[in-house]
């Protein structure tokens, strides 16, 4: 079972990461990792960093057939 400390330490080592990457690295379920990241955010330890849609050619992700897959959200430690 992954802990809040492991998630925090992983972000400290790697910088910005997606929740899916953290989940795979720690071998923890994605909903658990997402809940931990949100808890760390509530504690003032992490911050969400939305990535720009560089791969989106039209700039209209809402009508995109991919369903906003080009919009990713990464997490990092709050400095």
Element layout with pairings:
Layout: H1 4-14, E1 17-18, H2 19-26, H3 30-42, E2 46-50, E3 73-77
Antiparallel strand pairs: 1-3, 2-3
Helix pairs in contact: 2-3
Description:
The chain is built from three helices and three strands; from the N terminus they run H-E-H-H-E-E. It has 79 residues and is of the alpha+beta class. Strands 1-3-2 form a three-stranded antiparallel beta sheet. One of its GO terms (molecular function) is DNA binding. It comes from Jejubacter calystegiae. Pfam families: FeoC.
Summed up:
Helices cover 41% and strands 15% of the residues. It has 79 residues and is an alpha+beta fold. It has one domain (4-77): Winged helix-like DNA-binding domain superfamily/Winged helix DNA-binding domain (Arc Repressor Mutant, subunit A, Orthogonal Bundle), CATH 1.10.10.
